Predict the 3D structure of the following.
Amino acid sequence: MMIKHIFLAPAAIVLLGCISPAVQQVSAAPSGNYKLDPTHASVNWSLSHAGLSQYTARFDSISGALEFNQDAPETSRIDIRIDPRSVNTGLPDFDETLATSANYFDADSYPEIRYVSAAIVKTGDNRGTVTGDLTLRGVTKPVTLDVVFNGAGKSFGNPGKTLGFSATGTFNRSDFGMDYLITLGNIGDKISLNIQAEFNEAQ
């Protein structure tokens, strides 16, 4: 047993050295270019299902970049891209319908969902709002997100710094031509977003 501990200890030290607690001051996050870590990112969305529940799903294929300015965070820029075919409800047949039907994401005609920041406002030490252009089904509209900067730290497998964020927001799907079943089926128009994202410093 002692021999096992001797061999395991160095491995534990290496792992601990690759993961450090996040420092929440924005000033601790170095300026530069960052790439979204898809293994530590999620975009979950929900809407009312006839008033009975908040039906919730997610996208599994997300990519993006962050140009971060430590001294003036409001001048930073975010560009996120989502593959609508990666929609995941846990029901593969329904996922295919959501992805390809003209009533929903119509991915054959519109193969990408994109969000590009246009204005960032700092509202607290580690909070702000990001208003960006959301392009969905070929329609571009502004959508505002409430964003929390969770901190800057070191993530396992990434040689540089990692920045972490959480964000929430809402928009009406009918604004993007996706109004199927709003009236006849009493399926909600308002989409609620819950986003978690880590960005790794580009090397």
Q: What stands out?
A: Residues 1-17 have pLDDT under 50 and may be disordered. The first strand starts at residue 32 and ends at 48.
